[in-house]
User: Fold this.
Amino acid sequence: MVKVGRRITFNAAHRLNNPNWSEEKNTAVFGKCNSPNYHGHNYTLETWVEGVINPETGYVIDLSELKQILKEEVEEPFDHRNFNLDVPEFANLNPTAENIAKVIYEKLKPRLMQFKVVVRLYETENNFVEYTKD
Amino acid sequence: MVKVGRRITFNAAHRLNNPNWSEEKNTAVFGKCNSPNYHGHNYTLETWVEGVINPETGYVIDLSELKQILKEEVEEPFDHRNFNLDVPEFANLNPTAENIAKVIYEKLKPRLMQFKVVVRLYETENNFVEYTKD
Amino acid sequence: MVKVGRRITFNAAHRLNNPNWSEEKNTAVFGKCNSPNYHGHNYTLETWVEGVINPETGYVIDLSELKQILKEEVEEPFDHRNFNLDVPEFANLNPTAENIAKVIYEKLKPRLMQFKVVVRLYETENNFVEYTKD
Amino acid sequence: MVKVGRRITFNAAHRLNNPNWSEEKNTAVFGKCNSPNYHGHNYTLETWVEGVINPETGYVIDLSELKQILKEEVEEPFDHRNFNLDVPEFANLNPTAENIAKVIYEKLKPRLMQFKVVVRLYETENNFVEYTKD
Amino acid sequence: MVKVGRRITFNAAHRLNNPNWSEEKNTAVFGKCNSPNYHGHNYTLETWVEGVINPETGYVIDLSELKQILKEEVEEPFDHRNFNLDVPEFANLNPTAENIAKVIYEKLKPRLMQFKVVVRLYETENNFVEYTKD
Amino acid sequence: MVKVGRRITFNAAHRLNNPNWSEEKNTAVFGKCNSPNYHGHNYTLETWVEGVINPETGYVIDLSELKQILKEEVEEPFDHRNFNLDVPEFANLNPTAENIAKVIYEKLKPRLMQFKVVVRLYETENNFVEYTKD
Assistant:
């Protein structure tokens, strides 16, 4: 088995907030990430696809196909957007790195069913998460 | 003469827009950066200070002093903020990397008058600017 | 299950040496790392914590709690120190990257008992280790 | 158990091509990577070796031994070479990152039999693969 | 005055050779870089453009224009090519990093006449050059 | 004119201290960097050499010559050493990044007299200096 990784980047705004909590509790838990007018990140996404090497191509997956899937499922809906206001998946979901990675996994997996899929998302150079259900 | 550089990072949201233009023109010039609900970046700031080596310390500048200046002038007012909505300097100034670098230079220089100061701001790994009037 | 990673850096001096060996054998095995007056590194530590997403916060772990644990267990005792002379855990333990990672794991784990914990330590850009018992 | 990683780099030329296919199909599948006069990469190889810490050295593996193995099996045969024309393993094997990682694993493993071995190969900052049979 | 930098990457093969020299002299001077079947690199190009901030846009240069110039002058002719065999400018010019940077500068400058232009080319993480005539 | 840069790394221990000061003043000025048993860094050195392109080689400087100079003047005397105890230039000179860069410049310049030389030294990813007298 071989894993293939593809790195992409996108830029987005977000705010961490639990609408069921008081502002005091939101500030205590989320600190500056609860800043009301949003802040943002250069997100880096590594998508790892595990499978077998196709003997005809030497590829685990056709890279042009993987690029197209990442473009449609991640770059177009998320890049230069506000997670809280522009992305339907986060209408009722706090856009932490954990939840963004989970949403990305759930969007990518149906298009990569024959592979084991792992997503690693870097929010900053110091904070990152990895998500899979495979 | 010796230059000393100090790197810090901060995260902020912004939107590029000229309120005197039609939405069509804003989209044509700023593209996705004109997205109405903001997007954001992990900004990396390098501040370069040029001076002479103090023979008693071996420093060009006391690093704890430089750290404090950067904290007060850059990190506290900009980190986890929205440039367009939260930062007074951009009430009537488009928060491009060029203008953010210029504002940072103008905030830092009065506190570093005895030095030549250059600021380099990375908006992404692919886009960066350098500003000085010295 | 989701893994959350947090990167910190610290600077320390060390020397590799087995006091039960002759100086010839120490030099043969440890080379320049046996240099008697110590050398040092900018260590980079990634701490990975695996758990489930708390639906109220969207976090696997409260980041301010993880930061505090890393500060108390790693930064305060190790940063700007000499592993051989200043850190009790290495009084009789050679401070290789492997052993430093093991000691860090053993200091962090009791404070993160509900999580699977993995530590990855970069000694240089070319040498790194990963340690877990989970 | 502890994993130790060692990073090396090498530069090589290659071309992706299936000689059993028409030129049209090669171009459709491999795109620019099928360019007839070759292109090249700065490959970065991480070799991960998993074992137990030797209590006498504090090492999982003697680093000078690992360096020598990597020099003989990877750097000397691959660095500044053309995978398609100069490296016998690729005489009838397409030099994709997947296949290069597999060949490296198969060359390293017999010299590291007592360890679990994983190789990770970065072809560019955006494309990378990981291979193991352990 | 403000400088704006834009980073792009491209992959290419090359070989260093002076056809007026004996093979012995070529090997003595260029070492492994004279390997006959070419090797290659992930080149990273930073293009720095110095000018004044346009008060209407906040930009020194319209980024979409700069991207298009870099695409036409650098990416399309150089990416996934062999400098020695595929790029006319190197038919009689040794494709060292110095000469590649010079050729890139001379291709970019006529399209950026109103700006001071500097190009910095990274051949590897350890070797890089900077070229300008401005 | 063209500038050529070469990056090397070395690891060393140091301590910042002015022996003419009280321990209180040393701690006030140098903080943790005054830690008595030393700490250390992975130093990264960029050496920039400015000259003209030799038309026979396409090089500004023969890289094997530059590598040899860096090995003799920097790597051999500094790598895996303690600046305060092992390096004669710092017997009476505080080994700040500024002073290390100055010493490196003064060691390299006599061997690179026909070139303009600039050295940039990274002590950490956040602290760096640049030194030249040319």
Q: What stands out?
A: The domain at 2-131 of chain F is CATH 3.30.479.10 (Tetrahydropterin Synthase; Chain A).
